[in-house]
Specification:
The chain is an alpha+beta fold. Helices cover 34% and strands 24% of the residues. The protein has a 5-stranded parallel β-sheet. The chain has a 5-stranded antiparallel β-sheet with strand order 12-13-14-11-15. The longest helix has 26 residues, at 347-372. The relative contact order is 0.17. The structure holds flavin-adenine dinucleotide (FAD). The site of flavin-adenine dinucleotide has 30 residues, from α1, β3 and α11.
Length: 380
């Protein structure tokens, strides 16, 4: 078993899972995170998890399945376990009876217990030196290590420095997202009759998909999330802006509100959420559906220099139709096992088994988002 200190860049779902599993094996790790120390509003939304990814975590966390689900479920505070009714989904095949909606910040809080997270300590750049790799962190910290693991998400600086030519593909879909705080009485009268005890409901009108989900249920307030998505309409679609800057996410064109106003005969809770006048008063985000896949060959070349990767930094799937959280959790569990058995020297072999799954995952996610919007499934 290796006792070498592992340096993890990024304390999101994958980095935290990796750190927590390494801790279980007695392997020391430090996580460097760009974001400031935990704000409760950091990731206040739900993500879908399946048993195949979360069951292997239970032993590490020392929790049984029901306790885990209640602890992290979006409706955990009111006694729920994150239930999803597949009949209320546009693509029912993407969930099974074990799938549930986890509150992302609660999940991260649980994973984070006992870990050394260095907040507001972003990786700024990576330099190649004669003796290996030098990571330059915020606060002028310099870090040389034989085991650096980049888990810094789809916009990974670690990847951008080492693999500047790997493209961030933007899929041809238009997607908008928003949040609303709803009084309990409104939730019970307007949302609950259609949603029952499911935490998501979706509908399709033509190729437009509307999605309403519970981000968090508290006693008197329910936080709701929504998305509006559809395929891009050719290259002149005013709502498809694949090259917009990060800061452009909040620039919402008038055409978006016109499309919402043109939706016909919505029933509740869609009528309540997709009310143009209310949406105009709220923060709406323009989402890009991105994918990333770094080649196996490049990963092996970085491994020679002591820099390794997992999670969205090297295989990102789109938010809609993707399974990025599930894959990041599985990466973290399996990479920790590999390091505990073979040390960092075993990670090249781990890539051999894992990379085909990442490649397949990206293809599957592209298929799922197409199917979700009414296109037939393409054979793999
Ligand atoms: C709104 C939303 C909904 C989603 N829903 C689902 C879902 O239902 N199901 C699903 O499977 N997936 C979902 N996903 C995707 C899922 O959250 C990601 O795939 C998953 O979090 C990837 O884990 P990761 O650890 O690789 O990256 P992240 O969880 O993104 O973690 C990366 C971390 O690195 C930090 N970081 C970034 N740059 C630096 C730097 N330079 N230095 C140090 N730290 C840095 C970031 O702050 C972040 O904490 C959703 C994503 C979003 C945004």
């Amino acid at each position: 078993m290796t006792q070498q200190l592992v340096h993890i860049i990024g304390a999101g779902i994958g980095g935290l899972t990796l750190g927590r599993c390494l801790l279980r094996y007695g392997i020391p790790a430090v996580l460097y995170e760009k974001a400031p120390a935990v704000a409760t509003t950091r990731h206040n939304y739900g993500i879908t998890l399946h048993a195949s990814s979360y069951r292997p975590l239970l032993n590490i966390l020392g929790l049984d399945e029901l306790s885990f689900r209640r602890r992290v479920a979006v409706d955990g505070p009111v006694g729920g376990s994150g239930k999803i009714d597949p009949n209320l989904l546009v693509c029912p095949g993407t969930v099974d009876s074990t799938s549930f909606r986890a509150h992302r910040e609660k999940l991260e809080g649980l994973l984070r217990q006992g870990l050394d997270v260095q907040w507001e300590n972003a990786l700024e750049k990576v330099e190649e030196t004669p003796s290996g790799m030098l990571l330059c962190l915020q606060n002028n910290q310099r870090l040389e290590s034989e085991c650096i693991i980049g888990v810094d998400g789809p916009h990974s600086n670690t990847r951008k420095y080492l693999s500047p030519d790997t493209p961030l593909n933007v899929l041809p879909y238009v997607a908008f997202n928003g949040k609303r705080r709803v009084e309990r009485a409104v939730f019970d009268n307007v949302y609950a009759p259609a949603m029952g005890d499911s935490n998501i409901i979706e509908m399709r009108q033509g190729d437009v998909v509307l999605h309403v989900s519970v981000n968090e249920q508290q006693g008197s307030i329910v936080n709701i999330g929504w998305t509006f998505s559809r395929p891009a309409r050719g290259t002149t679609d005013p709502l498809h802006k694949p090259n917009r800057p990060v800061s452009g996410a909040t620039d919402i064109s008038e055409e978006f509100f016109e499309e919402i106003a043109a939706l016909q005969g919505l029933e509740q809770p869609f009528m309540e959420i997709f009310d143009v006048e209310k949406l105009r008063m709220e923060r709406v985000l323009h989402w890009l559906m991105r994918t990333v896949l770094v080649s196996h060959q490049e990963l092996c070349a970085f491994a020679e220099k002591g820099v390794f990767f997992m999670g969205d930094s090297v295989h990102a799937e789109p938010i809609l139709g993707g399974e990025g959280a599930a894959r990041a959790i599985t990466d973290g569990i399996e990479l920790a096992k590999c390091i505990s058995l073979y040390g960092p020297g075993g990670i090249r072999g781990w890539y051999d088994s894992r990379h085909p799954k990442w490649e397949n995952g990206v293809k599957e996610s592209e298929n799922t988002i197409a199917e979700m919007h009414g296109s037939p499934k393409v054979a793999q």
